[in-house]
Amino acid sequence: MKSRLHHIAITNFKAFREFSLKLEGRHLLVYGANGAGKSSLYWALYTFLQSAGKKPSGSIAKYFDPANPQHLLNLHEQKEAVPRSGEIALTLRDTETRNDTIYRISQADHGTYNHPIILKGDLASDFITYRFFFGFSHFRNSENFDLWPLFEKEILPFCASTGGGNPLQMWDAIRFEMPNPRGLSGVAGTNSYDRFRRKTDAFAAVIPGIVDSISTKAQQFYDEYFSADDPAKVTLKIGVTTTPRAIGSTQNTFIFTKPVISFGIQIGGEEITRPQSFLNEAKLTQLALSVRFAASLVNLHESDLKLLVLDDLLVSLDMSNRMKVVDILLSDTFANYQKIILTHELGFFREFRRRIGSSHAEWQFVRLQGNAAQNIQAKSEKGDLEKAEDYLNGHDIEEAAMFLRKAAEDTAKRYREWAEGKALPPGQFFSLTENLRAAKNKLLEGIPTSMYERVLKGTPKEHRELLISADDTDLDGSAALQPADKGKLKSKRNDLRTVLKHDGWAKMEAVEAVDRVLEMTERVLNPASHGSATPLYEEEVRRAKKLIDRLEQVLLEVQQ
Asked: What is the pLDDT of residues 76-125, one digit of tens each?
């Protein structure tokens, strides 16, 4: 990407009266309660990019025209004696030259029309909302699973045909036009119907190839990310079962048939005729995610600007499945997108933020505050460790220690859940030391305690490989060993080297990090929590923060 979204300014549009958010080219994670403007931000970005391909004759102006019944102006702002004019303005920064360019859309300004950067950015970007997944699960048992209405609204705008055409424009030329708009008769009327039929046939020719490619990619995506816990092979298939058709050459004989896209599932080779009734919501959402992400990956476009905007995408998934998707979003699969993630769930916001880990510099974390009647503001959202750092810098040691304990409790809980491979019972309290010790014991199951305590504990990284011989020359030179024994010992040494170099050391480091936090708990964290008279010293609290930072980092590393 050559261009990154640098600044968002929205005036008098949907929930916003006057809104400003500086991204400086970073990815964005947004938390906002219902009514705080989260979805309005989604639609502002969507409307802006879509505007590049809209004709200037009122198609965009209507959203900002108070006299137009389709306007999207803030209703509270419109009640003012002199309401502010509606506008969406995005600042893009060229990553090479560092030059900024502001693009605007309003009632009087359509500065994005046919602009190459915005036009290509619209094709290359992707917008996904929870409505897509609702569309997968709302079918009644008696209904056939037809994805065309969902495909038309949520996928087609981002598709390209194998021939490079624009399927959405082809479809728009059909659905928004009459076959014989002037009511012509005779040969002229016949010709008008024929032209409409040719447009329909052209669209019918490209749509099966698009759907088939998405179906293939969706299966690959599902197999890679969601199939691990399936008791039997899950096979999905989407396909065009009815192509669009236009028949007849007169008003009385003309019939138009919309496409039908079927969605089918096999489990263990057995066909599931009603997936909406047979599968639970989480599994349907996994399949829907596979289809939707496949559509993104099949229809990749090169562009200077590429946004991936997700609005409450994972409301139907439990936290473990949500984090699978978070890992997908943070993987190389979507590395070429500037990502904007919107959620109304604070817990998910915090988990997503933790999973980002050491890449904080590439992300902006924001909480939307206010409502449509007020000026909604974007407030930088800090984590407990960041708050502790702020209090330390202000020499407020007690407050810093309190937030350190909160951070340690949260990390310890996640440590234990990761080590035990299951979530802790909801509503049941476990202390900081309980969770840390349980996590440590689980980690030590794969490492003999005596080996850890007597040999491995405290051995610095630079000395690890010195615990065993760098090569096997001593074995080769031993006259007392038989060739078979030499081979067995070499194999055992290789196993030990593997443990010391890879996951074994990661677990050992995790145990060591837990030990150090446990040692410091009584001195720093417990007095901070229980109001002890034991004085807290700034240097001790700073050391405690470093230990919790390390605990968090090691947890991220051991989870890789």
From this structure: 999 999 999 999 999 999 988 889 999 999 999 999 998 999 988 888 88
| Residues 216, 437: Cα–Cα separation, whole Å | 46
The rounded distance, in Å, linking the Cα atoms of 446 and 374 is 56
276, 235 Cβ separation under 8 angstroms? no
| Residue 470 tokens, joined | 């760098």
Residue 8: exposure state from Cβ atoms within 10 A (0-12, 13-18, ≥19): buried
Provide mean pLDDT across the span 176-190.
83
Structure-token match 């192509």, residue found: 243
Total domain count, the chain = 3
With residue 52 as reference, give the H or E element that holds it: none
* Tens-place pLDDT, residues 539-557: 888 888 888 777 777 766 6
CATH of the domain at 350: 3.40.50.300
Contacts of 468 (CB under 8 A, 6+ apart): 493, 496, 497, 500
Report the C-alpha gap between 559 and 323 in whole angstroms: 12
- 165: domain range? 141-302
Q: What are phi and psi of 6, to 5 degrees?
A: -105, -35
C-alpha span between 536 and 549 (Å, rounded): 19
Which residues pair with residue 127 across a beta bridge? Answer: 309
Q: Compute the distance between CA of residue 1 and CA of residue 4 in angstroms, rounded to an integer.
A: 7
Longest Cα separation, the chain: 106
pTM listed for this prediction: 0.72
Q: What pLDDT digit, counting tens, does each position of 369-408 carry?
A: 999 998 899 988 877 877 888 888 888 888 888 888 888 8
Co-location of 345 and 433 in the same domain: no
**3-state class of 262 per DSSP?**
strand
The partner residues of 89 in beta bridges, in order of sequence, read 9, 104
